Amino acid sequence: MGVREFQISDRNIVIHELDDLYDSTTGRVLTGSWLWNSAFVLAEWMATQCKLFDFDFRDKTVMELGAGAGLPGLMAALLGASHVVLTDVEPLLPGLLKNVNTNGLGDRVEVRELVWGSDDSDMGPLAHILKIISRKDSKIWAASEIRPWTIECLTEFTSQGFEIKESPVRYDEPHEEYDHAIFDSFSIFHLRQRDDERNF
To answer: For the chain, how far is it from start to end, CA to CA, in angstroms?
Structure first.
């Protein structure tokens, strides 16, 4: 796959993608070894539209679950987050660490193993982890391409006690790396644990 360089807003970022990385138990390819369009969409949204929600990354702690190549978490660090934790399964950690070091963010970004489910389509374990780590003032964002099964994933989160708001992604200018049309099929989802579901 190789190395990809991006300029998002006024920030440069380099992502190393991994080749031929497979789960040693199942033999399935590890999809987190390459950069997904949703990661790019979320990073771009964080850099350009997060301000519309009166949010500033400066001095915040950020955790990216299922980070893959780590683009959104690295963007959070570039936007001023004081501490970022990138998490994923063990085979992807060396690639995440390489991306942290390549971008000179080792002083603010750490890489940790966290397995939240055995199947990418099972959102129940992810919802459980989010309940454990989130607080009343936590911001939880996810970027997703709008597909027929997106509603199934969102329904799982609502059944687990989360409120969800959708922000369709819109950009006035195309990004040089991607066709502008790619953004038309994505949304950013804002998740918030309902007050009656909170443990603390």
So the answer is: 43
